[in-house]
Amino acid sequence: xxxxxxxxxxxxxxxxxxxxxxxxxxxxxxxxxxxxxxxxxxxxxxxxxxxxxxxxxxxxxxxxxxxxxxxxxxxxxxxxxxxxxxxxxxxxxxxxxxxxxxxxxxxxxxxxxxxxxxxxxxxxxxxxxxxxxxxxxxxxxxxxxxxxxxxxxxxxxxxxxxxxxxxxxxxxxxxxxxxxxxxxxxxxxxxxxxxxxxxxxxxxxxxxxxxxxxxxxxxxxxxxxxxxxxxxxxxxxxxxxxxxxxxxxxxxxxxxxxxxxxxxxxxxxxxxxxxxxxxxxxxxxxxxxxxxxxxxxxxxxxxxxxxxxxxxxxxxxxxxxxxxxxxxxxxxxxxxxxxxxxxxxxxxxxxxxxxxxxxxxxxxxxxxxxxxxxxxxxxxxxxxxxxxxxxxxxxxxxxxxxxxxxxxxxxxxxxxxxxxxxxxxxxxxxxxxxxxxxxxxxxxxxxxxxxxxx
Amino acid sequence: xxxxxxxxxxxxxxxxxxxxxxxxxxxxxxxxxxxxxxxxxxxxxxxxxxxxxxxxxxxxxxxxxxxxxxxxxxxxxxxxxxxxxxxxxxxxxxxxxxxxxxxxxxxxxxxxxxxxxxxxxxxxxxxxxxxxxxxxxxxxxxxxxxxxx
Lengths: 454, 149
Fold this sequence. Notes:
The complex is a heterodimer of chains A (454) and B (149).
Chain A: H1 5-16, E1 22-29, H2 39-54, H3 57-68, E2 72-79, H4 82-86, H5 95-108, E3 112-119, H6 126-141, E4 145-153, E5 157-159, H7 160-176, E6 188-192, E7 213-219, H8 222-230, H9 238-267, E8 271-275, H10 288-295, H11 305-321, H12 341-348, H13 354-360, E9 367-374, H14 379-396, E10 400-407, E11 415-417, E12 424-426, H15 436-440, E13 444-445
Chain B: E1 4-5, H1 7-11, E2 18-21, E3 26-27, H2 29-38, E4 41-44, E5 47-48, E6 62-69, H3 75-85, E7 89-98, E8 101-109, H4 117-130, E9 133-139, H5 141-147
Parallel strand pairs in B: 1-3, 2-4
Antiparallel strand pairs in B: 4-5, 6-8, 6-9, 7-8
Helix pairs in contact in B: 3-4
């Protein structure tokens, strides 16, 4: 036999008991050839192109699941930012395009489709403005469409007009989906330094520098890492902890690499990148918070959490980098609150605050993710929260993002239920002091001195 | 003359089996993957463009079958019976008890299998149910990728 019995059993245990899975295969499709002066024509062209290129994605993914015995949780599509595609339309409401994307996703059996997006880090074009204005209707009238807006980069600084606009848009999206606790806002991300090849939702889009089509793979596996750390002796030092995570990250990433290469071969579409991420799910045991707690913290959010997370994130990258030929996307541990049972518990117990989460985003991907806040939080306060997070990304030359849900009618301590991968979340209190004057100043925060690298 | 043959250029020739380009043309990786998938032969001048290297190597003809459950008479016989009927050759077999559970692992050759991999999996799962054990079949590459550099 080529492998030892223990190796085979380890793989089987990782899948069956420790929730090892591929989080997503994301098919990136360029829609730049779908432009037209009439919105209905653009919507038709987009629908037709998605149906043609995407038709084999779900069957192929199911085949791979069967043959290799690794679950593939989501099949997704990312497309060219719609602001670029729809800019030449005479109409200003882009909702018909979102509906066409949603219909294609449903007809193809795709879980999410991302790319109802605009890149406005240095200012707006007509297409960008129209897209931003269409986001509330688009997200409340569709199920599977995800939107993202890049409002800052390390090279351009922060577009504060866009930041304030996003504060208002997030409020409006939540209001329009109030009967589902504002779930629309869970499909909307505000980015700094958004990557072009990210396979994870809600922020996936197919960047302008990408080829016609590409396959990107996002891996998962916090449960596996947690299991290996649980088996370490309590007095193992942090070097040993890091070593154990690295080894496991290598194995997890190899699974993604294999699935990505096979999918690429079978679909005839080039393999783009592996996103080296530990993505949690709401199921018990599949939690980033639990890993930090296994390292020795009573609850996620206790002092020491940022250091533990930094160690975890670094070890995942070191182990994963050797396992794959191309790394991209967000690549880091995710800390979405509502999607992680351990985070939910920590937030409900009062161990984890918005401010601690903000600190944690300095050392991992991606940002303030899936956080529910009181429904009466003002658009200006949300904009200020976004500005803080964008500043962290811009100064540290990393991707940061905000996906925050002001749940209508809810106050701190209540719970919201989104269901499925989006999970459930306790409403976290927000600092009640006012930032209105600051965020209303608007304009562009200049790029930092670190950006002058040439 | 096309300096760079991209996917788009190739799609215009998608009805042909052989496409020739003038010498010194560059063909992108995307276009080569598309050609390989659709059985189009590419020539630059007189030279045939090689297919993109299959980065997984040749697809393996082996699979790993794992059986986990309570030990009882007839498990090996039952599973082997399914394999024999499908003309699947057993290359290696090992069994042990882990944490009180009977665990059997077989490495098999599926090259000459008379049924598809899907079908084989179904038959094994069904037999597993009759024997009250869990039977899984996975292509061998997954273990190779995870445990060997």
